Amino acid sequence: MRLGFFGDVVGRAGRAAVSEYLPRVRKQLNLDFVVVNGENAAGGFGITASTAAEIFDAGADCITLGNHSWDQAEALTFIERETRLLRPFNYPQTLNIPGRGAQLFTTPNGQRVFVIQIHGSAFMESLDDPIQGVQRALDEAPLRQVADAVIVEMHAEATAEKYIMGHFCDGRATLVVGAHTHVPTGDAHILAGGTAYMTDAGMCGDYDSVIGMKKGPLVQRASTRLPVERKSPAEGPATLCGVFVESDDNSGLALRVEPIRVGGRLRQTMPQLLAPRIAE
């Protein structure tokens, strides 16, 4: 199976990059399933039904959120009717949190993809323990028994916590990928047990910025300690950033993992398919 995960979409520029590049990337890599993190899609803060529609229309099969899940009030009700939209799985079970944090999807050719989003604990809003959370989620749809592929998004600040999640899921997930920090890391590789890993997929946004936000006011605030205008997304040419995984259809584990960067300011990189595959 060929899977794509694309990092945090930031504002209008990020949505434009997804709309422009994702259809071509999906076709070129013959992707069976695509996950996009959209928690910053609506003006840099949260998601709305209309911004989600842009991302789905561009080719996403699933949109994940994160610590900005509820920045737009309409998300509280929209997520109940949109089963392709996921918030963190490890909200306390005692709370009546709308939506879902994991979902089993079926591709057009009948393969089953289980997507889990987990919220980190280090330097983040406190939710339930991420390790216990991912264990509960993995028990719902075990790789090879229920799911043909399992994607775990670790939405977290600390790189060490993301690596811990990768090793904890190793051999039980197809891909563990980090999001939230908006900077693509250069460590895409396959762990010892066969799980593809990347600490952060990067953002889909304008990199002439401070992690997607206009740089001027933030540099001014840092240098003068004076209040400035409210943060807003940078609006220049954006880069589509993500990760490509090819998995073994028998084991569900990764055969190959490579970064994707298209458009904008960053150095471009696109996986080259070793052999063409006829779409089923």
CATH architectural label: 4-Layer Sandwich
Helix content: 10-25%
CATH superfamily annotation: Metallo-dependent phosphatases
CATH topology-level name: Purple Acid Phosphatase, chain A, domain 2
Detailed description of the structure:
It is a single chain. With 280 residues, this protein is α/β, with parallel strands linked by helices. The chain has 6 helices and 12 strands. The chain has one domain: 4-Layer Sandwich (Purple Acid Phosphatase, chain A, domain 2). The protein has a 6-stranded mixed beta sheet. Strands 5-6-7-8-10-9 form a 6-stranded mixed beta sheet, covered by helices on one side. The protein has helices at 11-29, 49-58, 75-81, 130-140, 159-169, 215-224, and strands spanning 2-6, 33-37, 62-64, 85-86, 102-106, 112-119, 149-155, 175-179, 189-190, 196-198, 240-247, 254-262. Helix 1 packs parallel to helix 2 (49-58).
Keywords:
6-stranded mixed β-sheet; 280 residues; 24% helix; Purple Acid Phosphatase, chain A, domain 2; alpha/beta
Outline of the structure:
The protein has 280 residues and is an alpha/beta fold. It is built from six helices and twelve strands.
How are the SSEs placed, and which strands pair?
Elements: E1 2-6, H1 11-29, E2 33-37, H2 49-58, E3 62-64, H3 75-81, E4 85-86, E5 102-106, E6 112-119, H4 130-140, E7 149-155, H5 159-169, E8 175-179, E9 189-190, E10 196-198, H6 215-224, E11 240-247, E12 254-262
Parallel strand pairs: 1-2, 2-3, 3-4, 6-7, 7-8, 8-10
Antiparallel strand pairs: 1-11, 5-6, 9-10, 11-12
Helix pairs in contact: 1-2
